[in-house]
Amino acid sequence: MSDTALAPAVTPASVDRPAVREVGIIMNGVSGRMGYRQHLVRSILAIRDGGGILLPDGTRLTVKPLLVGRSEAKLAELAARHGIEDYTTDLDAALADPRWEIYADFLVTKARSSALRKAIAAGKTIYTEKPTAETADEALELAKLAAAAGVKTGVVHDKLYLPGLQKLKRLIDSGFFGRILSVRGEFGYWVFEGDWQPAQRPSWNYRAEDGGGIIVDMFPHWNYVLENLFGEVKSVYAQASVHIADRWDENGEHYTATAEDAAYGIFEIDGNAAGEPIVAQINSSWTVRVNRDELVEFHVDGTHGSAVVGLFGAKIQHRNATPKPVWNPDLADDHDYDADWAEVPTNDVFQNGFKQQWEEFLLSYALGTEYEFDLLSGARGVLLAEAGLRSSREGRKVELTALSLD
Fold it and tell me: N- to C-terminal Cα distance for the chain?
């Protein structure tokens, strides 16, 4: 495969045929749920089948995936299903092959760091799921290694691309809230124990020794959501709980959960224009039955208005349309509070968030521009998760230290 295939010289007959560059992408861990559905099918294959990405100079960037995993049979089946030419179980050989310019990692957390180190040593551009490592020290070390090697990196920040959060960003940027006071988040759903109904999540999620736990899974998300919408997270107080210890794995075998299935966190954010912290309270749980419009919702209150946003929807209430409730436990309150909120119009066409971030990263790669969601950003997410676990163990608020590549 040639790294760059150019269209014929421009003539009147070929003036509408732009140059095309094909980028080879090593995709490690595509047999997993997220790696397959979101990154392979809905992102890279969607970009490939759509003809690639149009660059500002009129040329086009297309993608060619190389599937990497442990099971050759699974890889062969995926490749045949989706018309993919290349797959291998030999990651080292793939990293040594100059045809493949980008290394993409969707492995379980425990396996990620060693693979990223290999990719950095091979000089590959890196795009990876989070958390980027099991500890903040290791995550920061990876960021420093990549920077020293001149390796461009990107970390998945998919929640920022949700239609609901993009609407929230638009509200913040417009000054709708006035001075933002607080954020309340609710995330989660009931994950079955696995005895009478199969669980919707892999069993390793409930074993700390295998890198499981909802804090490690979700706090890195909350870090980039909070810091990119509201401001830098300065401290955390968290309570982690193993609400359901008895669970059954994919083979129907009983095991005892050692990682938390719920976490209740309070975060102080250095983002208030008046110099006061914004307080965020976010509950994350795999042991909650949903009674809200969407699986995740954020309620933001400000001096001039409030908003409730989810995966897709967003509704607002301005200060001029705020009702005046009066507390009276002796009388039933028949006021329809839901009717006091107005839906935020979409006014945009939102695509799959994973695909959108992939396109932005590939565009940044092609143009050689800075990319802010890098391994250092990923390290800050790991730091918050680590601080949350420490807070729960010690029963106190934990201040976060600033991370840098220096």
Answer: 39
